[in-house]
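Tutorial sheet, problem 5. The two components below are modelled jointly, 720 residues in total.
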Amino acid sequence: MAAADDTKSLRRARFAPYGLLSPGLIWLALFFLVPLTTLIRLSLSEKPNAFLPEYNFTGSTANFTNAIGDNTDVLGRSFLYAAAATVAAILIGYPLAYFVAFRAGKYRTILLGLVILPFYTSFLIRTLAWKSLLADEGPVLRFFASLKVDSVLEAVGVMQNGRVLNTSLAVIGGLTYNFLAFMILPIYVSLEKIDVRLLDAAQDLYSSPRAAFRRVVLPLSLPGVFAGTLLVFIPAAGDFVNAELLGGPNNAMIGSKVKDLLLNQSDYPSAAALSLVFMVLITTGVLLYARVLGTDELVG
Amino acid sequence: MNDDEMLRQAIQMSRDLSRRRFLRNAGMAAGGLALGPAMLAACGDDAKTASPAKNADSSTDAVRKVEPDMGTGAGGKTLTFSNWTAYIDTVKDDALAEGTTIDRFQKETGLTMDYKVDYNDNEEYFSTIFQPNLGTGKRIDPDVVAPTYWMAARLLGLGWLEKLPMGAIPNHKNLADQFLNLSWDEGAVHHMPWQAGITGIAYDPSRTGFELKSFNDLFDDRLEGKISLLKELRDTVGCIMLEMGKDPSKPDVDGAMAALDFIEQMRAKDKIRQFTGNEYLQPLSNGDVKACLAWSGDIVQLQREQPNMKFVIPEAGSMQWFDTMVIPKGAVNTNAAAQWMNFVYDVDNAALLTEFVQYVSPVKGVREALAAKGGDTAKLAESQILFPDDATQKRLKIFASLPQADELKIQKRFDSVKGA
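Model answer (structure tokens):
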């Protein structure tokens, strides 16, 4: 009797997780798998007449070869900019998160609030604000001019042809700024979880503060850095607002290309192929990164 | 940059509006500040519906001939017009208020107009509305739509437009001559221009330090990295073709490609700072861009704040563009559509529109009508930008309609040249 009950509840326990998962699974199936399948099918199709809504599934991979061939530079640039923005976000975000987690004391909540505060303004408005700030006769360049450092900045590549706006630096800066909070918050969470007594223990064992950071704090915060990297790198690589608003004709990113293919050229198959190439590249990159960093808890 | 300007740009960006109806539209987005791009874009879809009851609309798809050449009346009393935003006269931002063109039209004809401002972008409307519906033999809601001329030509080429019921549009005779002999629609029997404009060079001489007289002057070393061109293929490529002595009003793929090669060289030399829609207004105002390709209507507006700003139509010629009114295939109410076209081609009605929107009117006699009104309105009649003289008009070209394969070939090349 007792045994039968146990089996029953065991069986129930085995199915319960799936029941609980089902909303998520249905969501994934409807809004991820179905669109993805459509996208793959479309990328292997031909549109005999660009202006008519007819597609022939041919299974030809020509769209992929074209997508890669025509856009090598833009693909490379997108990843380069995103990588640069991610590194910059770690360099700025880590110390900030560290400070908030360990040194801010009672101001912790306020400081965290300040990190999130910019999100109360639309992404577009914030990016447009940079357009004004970085304008040739705007405050930033006027400040540089008053310090008479223009030629130095020009030499080190911060300025190009007398400007900051519409250069690669402006795009990378915009990406860093817009996604910075997505780096700070996960790092903060992982730092905040660290038991400070571990640091005391390190000290007791004659560790220097630097060694304690390197061997205790940093490894324990790596999951946060990993999560932050994903949250910054992936949207940054696909972003086109920063490139369109802060960049020039030599700074186009992949998002703009996909948009041009879709809208200007009505070439849906090529747009689908390019999007898939981008997805595959980014997924591969993320998996490699996970392998190197060995963050088991995040990738299972 | 003040808040209004930012808002305007944000909305514009979000719709990727690459045209010029934007300037007057600050009020539209109030409240859109904190919303994402998609939400902002949705603001524009807000139809200003005149009639609460759209009963007639759904009654039947059957098209019944009423009288030869007079259009069909099967759709009853409602007329739907999809137009660009800020492109019609309003009273306190209301296009249906007492005394507006739409209001007077409704009273005069007894028809009800469902006026929508959901035509934000030619390519977008084509991809999302025209192609999936008209391309599969379905009809679309609007009886009149306002595509730009080249899109109208594309639609006509695809067989997606109704012929205008000319018998119901006696005022068609008021159409200015230059619109009558377009290769893609001889005699303008499938479209009527709504408003037109000119593409030229805008600059402030106090910033450039010299007078710009030709498109070539844009690439002067003194302006390196300080100029912008337009994202609109036909404007940018057409202007450079004219400068090269080629005629963009004739189909000339090689000529267009040569112009594109030139533009690409200039881009590689970092001469061109940006390719823009009408977001050129901000950099042009704050000096980031000292000279640029610009649309006449925008510069007329800007000159009110910056009287130094000049708008130049080079000797070699420049590009003219226009937006049209067309009746999509299978439209329910072609007769009402014709009555509307007839109404706005009445000289006095057209003059009122010009007075408000300040684009180039395609209707003959508007200039005289404005002059007769006296006061500030009469000054508009003197404007060279609104009413180019005959010599200038001869220098203005409308980009040729190209076979589809050529159009796509040039577009593809242009997209790669403009980078973004």
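Marking note: The longest strand of chain A covers residues 45-46. Full credit if you identified this.
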